[in-house]
Amino acid sequence: MQSELRQNRIKKLEEIKALNIDPYPAYAERTNTCQEIINDFDKFKDQKNIIVGRIFLFRPFGKATFAQIGDETGRIQVYFKEENLKKNYDLVRKLDIGDFIQATGTLFLTKTKEKTVQVSNVKLLTKSILPLPEKFHGLKNEEERYRKRYLDLISNKKTFDLFKKRTQFVNSIRSFMQESGFMEVETPTLEHIPGGADATPFVTHHNALDIDLYLRISLELHLKRLIVGGYEKIFEIGKVFRNEGISPQHLQEFTMMEYYWAYATWKDLIGFTENFYTKIINDTFGTLKIKYKDQILDFTTPWKQYDYIELIKDKTGIDLNKANTFEKLIEEIRAKKIEVENVIGYGRLVDNLYKKTVRPSLIQPCFLINQPVAISPLAKKNENNQNTTQRLQVLIAGSELGNGFSELNDPLDQRQRFEQQAKLRKEGDTEAQMMDEDFVEALEYGMPPTAGFGVGIDRLLAILTNSENIRDVIFFPLMRPEKNNLEAKSKPSKYSEVEEVKSMDSVIDRKTAWELLKQNVKTENLIKHCLASEAIMKALAKKLNKPEQAWGITGLVHDLDFDYTKEKPEKHALMTADILNEYEVPEDMIDAIKSHNYENTGITKKTDLDFALSASEQLSGLIVSATLVLPDKKLQSLKPESVLKKMKEKSFARNISREDIQDVEKLGINLDEFVALAIKSMQEINNDLGL
Q1: What is the pLDDT confidence band of residue 136, given thresholds at 50, 70 and 90?
Q2: What is the pLDDT of residues 458-509, one digit of tens each?
């Protein structure tokens, strides 16, 4: 239908050109905005007015046409009459909703008292080729709203106004900081070592220098270098990037504001932060009482302060002063039957306990203080308790919406904490911070006592505007490319054409792949895991009409380096890529293998092959685990519903990425069908699996 409408508009475009009219002129005139005319109608009533805008309504009645056009300020009715426009009316007949025009005329009131422009001359400014969505009733599909934000802005005044509010909000932040004596600065987006937060970074490559770099995960460490350099009050508003999951409150690319204040402490931040929030909220929304879901958030100061350790003790009965090691804490957690994620290290365990039991209950604006050192690698220790830090967190509606502390400026202490974080990374904690020698060296030159604070602007604004999703307050949130977009068409996957499939199959055959597996993998269970992944991948390929051998081999060799990289998870998949590159394996296959360890490689999943591999290899492990808890421990006895049930049990599936498995639905296969297909494919090779 859209194609037919598009062709009709293209036909009109050619007819307009035949009238010797340029449908895309460079110049336009305007004497007044639409809203100015509406507001001061009597003032402009007796003069010629020129307005511009997009056509939103268009109602032809033979030799007369009523339309509504709008600019950024508002909309107004216009009236075209053939006897007034003469030959110019031929152009009016070829106009459509969505076109931009320039209308010249005088003002009058219709019989229904509607303010209207009687047009004496019309000029086409832009001919639209595609119709606005659903005859301009707006976009209903949420994903389309994010993907085609420009259409959402056109059709939804609430969205349009929300983003004007966002600009007002950010301007208020900037004004408050500048009026408080802070200087705005800019620091690098590309970094040698990412730091300042617990997050997995994105990796990129600098061609000219031939080095890998990271996109920053925080603004912190470079801003502190500027404090070392002599500035005393600085702030930055900028994008940061964290290669983590998407949720209604998380995106990989978001906007932060961070400030650093020399000769101040975390106690100075308390009052300053309260003033900061109340000022920008009142400036933007005109009130300190904000509706969020079924709550009224009251930002009236002073805010309550809660001690981190005491609050956990009140909520769980666990005293972190006593449960001060991983072993002691996990024993307490299990004794109280609290479910937490499977994590590495004491600090991460504490953080998960807090997020599970405490954070959701903190609804009204408040401060959380005295956090343990284990979860605060960049904060000063409290003088009266060396196990806690001089830190504050802002909690609103069960979410962290601000984080600050007295900055650690002891270079020896900082080095020790970085080393502890580096150890956690080696043990598999991809969010632990890296050793930053340059930053430690900067501290060795001396940084004065300093307090710092940061807040995620997008998440805060989403709550203040009662938005369902953080993506609602971001113009163009990152979305997965549509399969039929132009870029996808111009760069087809190596697996999309029969000729290329044959080419791939001739590069590495199954025999060669098996020999590589036997040469590099010595652990019997890992070999079985690779065989199971191969079987599931082949079954998926058959279902999706993809090349079975190519997909199967990808599953078979995806863990070639696992025995080598047990102690170096950041190298996992990268060594496999090096091995396979010697056989000139296509990049699609290499990227799929890298992406199944995306937390460490930074290679995100993009293609069908990527999603299929990560889903298949994760599900194969879950199927084996589900089999081993059966009374007879036989794979042939396993039912799909048993696997689906076990998948929902966090404690049982703690080492399995359920998100990766569920990603198979992006291939057009539902989860039930995928599990059944996977079990059947593994049962068919059970002689090799021995289950």
Answers
A1: very low
A2: 999 999 999 988 999 999 988 777 654 544 433 333 333 333 333 344 357 7
Count CA within 13 A, CB hemisphere, residue 163.
15
Average pLDDT of the chain to the nearest whole number: 87
C-alpha 607/C-alpha 503 separation (Å) is 19
| Cα→Cα distances 157→114, 163, 183, 448, Å | 21, 10, 35, 49
Amino acid occupying residue 550 = A
- Please say whether the beta carbons of 122 and 88 come within 8 A: yes
pLDDT at 648 over 70: yes
Q: Please say whether the beta carbons of 277 and 396 come within 8 A.
A: no
CA 214/CA 570 separation, integer angstroms: 14
d(Cα 538, Cα 440) in Å, to the nearest integer?
51
CATH of 160-303+364-473 given 3.30.428.10, 3.40.50.11270, 3.30.2350.10, 3.30.930.10: 3.30.930.10
Query: Is the CATH number 2.40.50.140 carried by domain 2-131?
Result: yes
Which tens digits make up the pLDDT trace of 167-193? 999 999 999 999 999 999 999 999 998
Q: Which residues, in sequence order, are CB contacts of 1 under 8 Å at separation 6+?
A: none
**Strand ranges for 295-356 from DSSP E:** 295-298, 304-307
- If we measure between CA atoms, which residue out of 393, 429, 417, 378 comes closest to residue 199? 429
Domain 486-689 has CATH 2.60.120: no
